[in-house]
Amino acid sequence: MPIRLGLASYTFRNFSRAQMIGFMKQLDVFALNAKDVKDHLPMDPQAEEAALADYAAAGIKLHAAGTIYFAKDEDTDIRSKFEYCKRAGIGVIVAGDPAPETLPRIDKFVKEFDIRIAIHNHGPEDKLWHSPLDVLRAVKGMDPRIGCCIDVGHTIRAGTDLVQAIREAGPRLFNVHMKDLTNFQSKESQVAVGDGIMPVRKMFEALIATRYQGFVDLEYEIHPDDPMPGVIASFAYMRGILGRHGIREATRD
Length: 253
Prior knowledge:
alpha/beta
């Protein structure tokens, strides 16, 4: 099975949609996990429609949206976010910090819209979801379209074995946010992928072994005003690892 590499639009949070599209073409990356930041994927329906037209013209496909926050346990608020993703043809919502008591209501909308929810873990600082394992315990027995987005940096900082977490998540893993660290106790130690100590090869092997169907989305959070050198290096390293170990990268449709 191939590995599918994508980009989290938060990487280019200080740049416009048009600039990001130019960067993606330069990177030869055409899969996007879009966030309502700058003008990347606005919540307003008309502005969203314009963004979708720009992505379609550039050959960019949106596979996920997020991180989207579900701060209210209310039908109206939750429905608006599912409708936002449905308009974009997005199949995965990367959800930030939904309270456990909100999950039954979210479950209802997952069934109605047939859109998966991937709860994002945010490490030891997160009051709810330190690790993907916390997510898996909370959603056990719920609709199989409710699962997790593993942020690899936050997962390791939470003291969780990343490779084992991927294996335990199995079919409930819907998205991966990729980054690298030089110190597994410090989120400030982020570097370009390949310059740190993240077990990238073993991570890819675990994704292959579990028949992962989603994307590995680079989320490069440092140097927000000049991210391209690190982003270029990160994709080059990941592609090099894949090539050296005979793991195929999915090609553009």
